[in-house]
From TrEMBL:
PANTHER family: METALLOPHOS DOMAIN-CONTAINING PROTEIN, SPHINGOMYELIN PHOSPHODIESTERASE. GO terms for molecular function: hydrolase activity, acting on glycosyl bonds; sphingomyelin phosphodiesterase activity. Transmembrane segments: none annotated. Residues 1-27 form the signal peptide. Residues 50-137 form the Saposin B-type domain. Keywords: Disulfide bond, Glycoprotein, Glycosidase, Hydrolase, Signal. It comes from Geodia barretti (Barrett's horny sponge). This is Sphingomyelin phosphodiesterase A. The keyword Hydrolase applies. InterPro entries: Calcineurin-like_PHP, Metallo-depent_PP-like, Saposin-like, SaposinB_dom. It catalyses: a sphingomyelin + H2O = phosphocholine + an N-acylsphing-4-enine + H(+).
Length: 407
């Protein structure tokens, strides 16, 4: 039986080669995507670098669809997708894909396959979504993005479980402000003494607690400056362009904030706590990074109220979020615990943070903050396709309407 299977596979390969030969000899153009598929099937991954990255992606998708039809596992699909990751990392960015791709695929591929299996995404649209194919080349593919709503893959709608109106019931809009005594004059917010309200924004700190001074700052990875990476160029005391932020630099920034004159009335912190080593992420690492940074800011700036928002790097893997899965429900519950270290929040705000990482509260008598979870609509959050009606990916325009004016 085994020998018969080998013989059959050999005959199939010979037939495919004969078709290509006849096409070339007769002057009939060979479909480049089919050539890519044949290279993938033969395991000849080195020659993939000769092809346009979009073609490689579309070829990989064609093979993956065959695997999905026979209900293959994630572990079976990873070797099929890995050549695409390697070509992208090595050819496009000059990164060490051999080092980075295994961890990235292990984190992201299960989510992509989950969304596809739920019927919310045609695999043929993935290359466009991850920006490896542009709109014009995608429109020529076998499954155009604009027909996404008509395909057999696209069957269900998803409605978020979180509702902002429920968060605003009762007297939650009338809570005591965290900073008292603001009014409005001449089109700007002012304190009672007539001075303008001053605030400061922090964002994308991406603290790397594993940063090491003197380590390689050029390492062919998305993030360098760690002792065990190979490369050149010693990282300086305060970091390098190829590094994430060292603690020494954060200390200088926080000291400078403490010496500002006038002092900010409040601080907005719009998230992203962890470093960019996306191939090495875990939930434990994400929580540790967030807890450390929140505690550090609370300790070093105790006199300032800091209003946080969720960044796309607080989740695992980064940028992926959906409130209906238990791991993300655990994330938002932890955020409620962490964030109350930064500012005294009313219970109504803590409840909505725990529910979906969004909240509203008064800062001043005449000033309100509304912090929303922008991960819901992030373009590279594959879970958004469970919505099934995403206007961005169907190239629609949107009108946001309401009874009263907004703003």
């Amino acid at each position: 039986m085994a020998s018969g299977r080998v013989l059959l596979e050999l005959l199939v390969s010979l037939a495919a080669a004969l078709v290509v030969c006849l096409q070339q000899c007769s002057g009939v153009p060979v479909d480049p995507r089919q050539q890519v598929v044949q290279l993938l099937e033969k395991g000849n991954h080195e020659d993939l670098a000769k092809y346009d990255l979009c073609l490689v992606c579309e070829g990989v998708v064609e093979v993956v669809k065959l695997y999905l039809e026979r209900n293959a596992s994630v572990d079976e699909v990873i070797p099929v997708v890995e050549p695409l990751c390697l070509v992208y990392m090595n050819k496009t960015n000059g990164y060490n894909g051999t080092f980075m791709c295994p961890g990235i695929l292990k984190s992201y591929l299960p989510i992509v396959l989950y969304v596809v299996a739920e019927g919310a995404l045609d695999p043929a649209d993935v290359c466009y979504i991850i920006h490896l194919c542009n709109s014009s080349s995608h429109a020529q593919s076998s499954s155009p993005l604009l027909s996404l709503l008509e395909t057999s893959w696209h069957k269900r709608q998803w409605t978020p479980t979180h509702s902002l109106p429920g968060a605003l019931e009762g007297n939650s809009l009338r809570e005591e402000p965290a900073v008292r005594g603001a009014g409005k004059r001449g089109g700007r917010l002012e304190k009672k003494g007539g001075d303008p309200i001053v605030f400061l924004q922090l964002s994308d700190i991406h603290l790397d607690q594993l940063f090491a001074e003197g380590s390689p700052s050029i390492c062919n990875l998305y993030l360098c400056c760690r002792t065990w990476y190979s490369g050149t160029g010693p990282a300086g005391h305060y970091g390098d362009f190829n590094c994430d932020l060292p603690l020494a630099t954060l200390e200088v920034v926080v000291e400078a904030i403490a010496q500002l004159d006038p002092q900010p009335d409040f601080i907005i912190y719009t998230g992203d706590n962890s470093p960019h080593d996306v191939w090495n992420e875990t939930w434990t690492g994400e929580y540790q990074a967030t807890e450390f940074l929140i505690s550090y800011l609370a300790e070093k700036l105790p006199q300032r109220h800091i209003y946080p928002a969720l960044g796309n790097h607080e989740t695992f893997p980064e940028s992926e979020y959906i409130g209906t899965l238990p791991q993300y429900q655990e994330l938002t519950r932890k955020m409620a615990d962490y964030w109350q270290k930064l500012v005294p929040l009313p219970q109504s705000a803590l409840d909505t943070i725990a529910d979906g990482a969004y909240y509203t509260t008064l800062i001043e008598d005449k000033l309100r903050v509304l912090s929303f979870n922008s991960d819901y609509g992030y373009t590279i959050n594959f879970y958004t396709h469970l919505n099934g009606r995403n206007a961005y990916f169907t190239r629609q325009q949107e009108w946001i309407v309401g009874h009263t004016s907004k703003g």
